[in-house]
């Protein structure tokens, strides 16, 4: 923001001094348009991604937005939850794809979740559960509602090019 502020001041002062500007035509073929990202519709975590991408996705959807969404298997049915923050730890373990999203550690403050290339460390205070009776996280699995992911990818295919 400070750089923008300086550039704007410099630009305005050049206009006041009557400086001329060289026009440069933009090549439309090099342009890319990314539509607005609607967190409520598109904020579902894809647990198949690399851990650092998941962490960045969680942070991008976090406050002031509504948070990244996932489901967790509950006692009887799946429970929707929102994750606001996570830390990623890269690990050289070969993790089987069936374990992606699996909670393998829990204490009073944090849980650890397997991802493709390591694990995520999530503070319990950064998880919001909806209508949940979940008291113990360890052994549970975070997963995505495939319909939600497919819906988001079909609406905004350019945003999901990295898959």
Structure description:
The protein is α+β, with helices and mostly antiparallel strands and 163 residues long. The protein is 25% helix and 23% strand. It has helices at 2-16, 39-42, 51-61, 146-155, and strands at 68-73, 78-83, 87-90, 103-106, 110-115, 118-123, 127-129, 142-143. The radius of gyration is 21 Å and the shape is elongated. 22% of the residues are buried. The model has no long low-confidence stretch (mean pLDDT 84).
Q: What is the helix content?
A: 10-25%
Span of the ends, CA to CA: 32 Å
- What sequence of helices (H) and strands (E) makes up the elements? HHHEEEEEEEEH
Report strand %.
15-25%
Over all CA atoms, what is the radius of gyration? 21 Å
Question: Number of helical segments?
Answer: 4
Report the sheet with the most strands, covering strand number, pairing sense and barrel closure: 4 strands, antiparallel
* Helix/strand/pairing category: alpha+beta
The global form is elongated
Q: Uncertain spans, ≥5 residues at pLDDT below 50? A: none
Mean pLDDT value: 84
Counted beta strands: 8
> Going across the major beta sheet, what is the strand order?
7-2-1-8
SSE order and pairing:
Blueprint: H1 2-16, H2 39-42, H3 51-61, E1 68-73, E2 78-83, E3 87-90, E4 103-106, E5 110-115, E6 118-123, E7 127-129, E8 142-143, H4 146-155
Antiparallel strand pairs: 1-2, 1-8, 2-7, 3-6, 4-5, 5-6
């Amino acid at each position: 923001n400070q750089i923008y502020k300086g550039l704007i001041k410099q630009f305005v002062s050049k206009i006041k001094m009557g400086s001329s500007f060289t026009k440069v035509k933009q090549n439309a073929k090099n342009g890319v348009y990314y539509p607005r990202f609607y967190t409520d519709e598109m904020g579902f975590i894809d647990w198949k991604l690399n851990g650092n991408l998941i962490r960045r996705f969680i942070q991008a959807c976090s406050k002031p937005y509504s948070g990244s969404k996932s489901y967790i298997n509950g006692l009887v049915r799946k429970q929707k939850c929102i994750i606001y923050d996570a830390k990623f730890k890269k690990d050289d373990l070969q993790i089987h794809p069936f374990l992606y999203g699996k909670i393998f550690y829990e204490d009073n403050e944090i849980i650890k979740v397997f991802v493709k290339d390591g694990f995520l460390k999530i503070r319990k205070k950064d998880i919001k559960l909806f209508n949940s009776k979940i008291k113990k996280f360890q052994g549970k699995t975070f997963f995505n509602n495939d319909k939600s992911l497919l819906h988001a990818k079909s609406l905004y295919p350019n945003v999901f090019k990295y898959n």
